[in-house]
Amino acid sequence: MSQPANAQELNLLEVLTQILRRKSLIAKGTLIALLIGVIVAIFSPREYIATTSLMPPQQAPSSAAMLMNQAAALSGPFSASSALSSAFKNPSAIYVGLLSSRSVADALITRFNLLKIYHAKSMTAARNRLGSSTKVEIDKNGLLLISVKDHDRIQAAALADGYTTELRNLAGRMAAQEANERKVFFETQLKEARDRLIDAEVAFQSVQKSKGIIQPEAQTRSMVEGIARLRSDIIEQRASLQTLQSYTTDQSPQVQLRKKQLADLEAQAAAFASKGSSVNAAGINLGDMPDIGMQYLNAEHELQMRQAVFDMLLKQYNAAQLDESKSPLIVEVVEPAVVPETTSGPRRALIVLGVALSGFIFSVLFALASWAVELATTDESSAAQMRAFREAGAIRWRFPFVSAANK
Questions:
Q1: Backbone φ and ψ of 3, nearest 5°
Q2: What are the pLDDT digits (tens) for 160-196?
Q3: What residue ranges of the chain are covered by domains with CATH 3.30.1890?
Q4: How many helices (H) and strands (E) does the chain have?
Q5: Helix (H/G/I), strand (E/B), else coil: 326
Q6: What is the DSSP string of 202-234?
Q7: Second label for 228, Cα 20 to 30 Å away, from 107, 147, 250, 326?
Q8: Are strands 329-330 and 144-150 parallel, antiparallel or unpaired?
Q9: Which of 230, 253, 250 is closest to 242 using CA atoms?
Q10: What one-character DSSP code corresponds to residue 47?
Q11: H/E element holding 291?
Q12: Does CATH number 1.20.120 belong to domain 48-189+326-335?
């Protein structure tokens, strides 16, 4: 099938031909881009990277944790402490997050006056700049690496070491806050436990006073021994009376005295037998001792329990007070940051090459665009549409690469 005269076939060979026709334009554009790249590379400020390496931070055992471990030792290997310790499989990842936190960044921005150095208009801009200049990672040996890039090599080393200091400060603030919250909690619980302990002491003393019993076991034993002693005295008096009657008359004063003593002892024994119990000096019947003893033991157990709870809470409160001033994190620096002697950037050759390549691509596209405009102006209908478009005021510029013959 034949094609119209004004139709033009576009193929790769023709495109390459048109590009070669405009090789001077492409060369000029590439050269200009190359010069721009050289200027940018020359005036780009040098960059330095300082790195500090840390051992994975170790959690110092708090006083409260040691108390919990002592209590949990009785519960065997499946205690709560072992479950909590196994929950943190990779503690280094936690400290990577802490080093990348806003609190650490704000502290460094304030400490090193980075708002002024970075020419940042807000804290957010300064945080973003600091974050893009900092890299925190875990190497294959498990060490924490903190790398900071800066135009000032001294400041790069200072910032890298500053992260270590701010990590300690942040951990200290978090521990102090946690210890203070525990102290406030245990202080409230301690007041309640003290009130309950006082109530238990009052109730125990009330049982002692109302029942007249101080030591149930000792008092019961004393009452039983008193009954046995009374019966032994009766047997002894009877034996003594029989001995006297064997060689004296009943009217003898000694016999009369023995009879009177024996009658008194038997009267006491009869009184005890009629009541079915014995009475001590406080007026407590031996038959009532089980009930009284149970009341005494309940009051005593309640007092001991309240005392144990109070002692435990007091230890926790004292531990929280101690943890407020205790450093919870042990950060060991393996290699502190040193002032770098060599630059890490910018890579000037890559800058020049990248800008030159961009200029070459732009020049080729510009050359192809100029060829497309020439094709449009050679076609009558396309030329009419372009003239109408220009007359409408949308385009006020002219193509210098269009030949006068095609206008």
A1: -110, 155
A2: 999 999 998 888 888 888 888 888 888 888 899 899 8
A3: 48-189+326-335
A4: 14, 6
A5: coil
A6: HHHHHHHHHHT-S-HHHHHHHHHHHHHHHHHHH
A7: 250
A8: unpaired
A9: 250
A10: B
A11: helix 289-324
A12: no
